[in-house]
Amino acid sequence: MLFCSVFFFLRKITRKTTREKKMNADTLELARKYDSVSSVYMQNGVRDKALSWIELEKDDVVLEVGCGSGRLCKILSPRVNSVTGLDISVGLIELAKRENPASNVQFFEEDAQTFGPHLHDWREKFDKILSFTVLQWCSDKESILKNVYRCLKPGGIFLLDFGLHGQCMGEWSSYGETADVWVRKHPKWGSYLQNCGYAIYYTKSSEGFLEIMRSVGFIIQRSEVKQRPWVKWNEETIKSQLRCLFYPIKHIPAEHQDEFIDDVYKWLYDVTPKRSKDVLQGEVGRFENMTIVATKE
Ligand SMILES: C[S@@+](CC[C@H](N)C(=O)[O-])C[C@H]1O[C@@H](n2cnc3c(N)ncnc32)[C@H](O)[C@@H]1O
Predict the structure, then answer these.
(1) Farthest CA pair distance, the chain
(2) Which of 33, 34, 46, 227 has its CA 20 to 30 A from that of 71?
(3) Would you say the CB of residue 114 lies under 6 angstroms from ligand 1?
(4) Under a CB-based contact definition with an 8 Å cutoff, are residues 288 and 229 in contact?
(5) Options 3.40.50.150, 3.40.640.10, 3.50.50.60, 3.90.76.10; which CATH number does 8-177+195-230+286-295 get?
(6) How far is the CA of 66 from the centre of ligand 1 (A)?
């Protein structure tokens, strides 16, 4: 009994900590906003290019880790046996369920670093596991790799793409001072950000990451690190992105968040070279993705 209480207490605080660090898409409204931002990410073709590295079969049982609003699950569901999407965001999973009525698609709200109860239920269940632009949000990448390995069938394939290193979000302006440093020194906003941590966990070495994958048991079939071009962003998309992804916003009282976003946007606009009228390029570029195909023997 005591053990159970301690377990649930620890799980609660661990989940809270993780939740504080992820992006801001807890409500359906924010999830929709975030989804529009995330679909802009995909215009740079990262996901489609990665998908071209593997063959999906009609019988495949597929899991997508960090499925967001389930866009990819929707695309894949007619092509495979079944698709399961897992994501930590309450709002995105709710949106995914609404947008994906197909009977062979299921969604679960869960942290990829634990897999919750699914870790047991999904043992050796999946032929293919996919994950796109998720791992940079997670501090404990090794646990995700172990969970994925456990849930893959022998002979199964893991296709992974994530931000290895980048200049975005907090590091956005990338020309000297960055947005998250600037807001901390701001006379008004700084006072709210005394206890604001950092949310993105980049990986220092691509080779080191592959070594971790090998130590988990994966056999690396192919990998690539590439600088990715980012599409042009206008005021609306940048503000949506700030609303969902600029983590200090979680520390700003709701009634001040619009003003906060306006201030950060104005600052970004001032410090960032313009690609063309009203289009910033400071957050564009210098984002390195790593794509990996690995198998389980
Ligand atoms: C940039 S989005 C990518 C979404 C989707 N994979 C796509 O390609 O459109 C990152 C996703 O990772 C999810 N995420 C972040 N941390 C997570 C975690 N610890 N466990 C599961 N999902 C997580 C977010 O909620 C979000 O949906």
Answers:
(1) 63
(2) 227
(3) no
(4) no
(5) 3.40.50.150
(6) 4
d(CA 98, CA 78): 17
Q: Residue 14 corresponds to which tokens in the numbers above?
A: 């661990």
The CA distance from 283 to 167, in Å, is 7
Identity of the amino acid at 140:
D
Token pair belonging to 131: 């994950």
**pLDDT grade, residue 275 (50/70/90)?**
low
What digits encode the pLDDT tens for the residues 96-130? 999 999 999 999 999 999 999 999 999 999 999 99
Query: In this structure, what are the phi and psi dihedrals at residue 220, rounded to the nearest 5 degrees?
Result: -80, 125
Residue to probe by mutation, ligand 1, list 111, 134, 138, 140, most atoms within 8 Å of CB? 134
Ligand 1 neighbour 113 (Cβ under 6 A):
yes
Beta bridge partners of 289: 163, 226
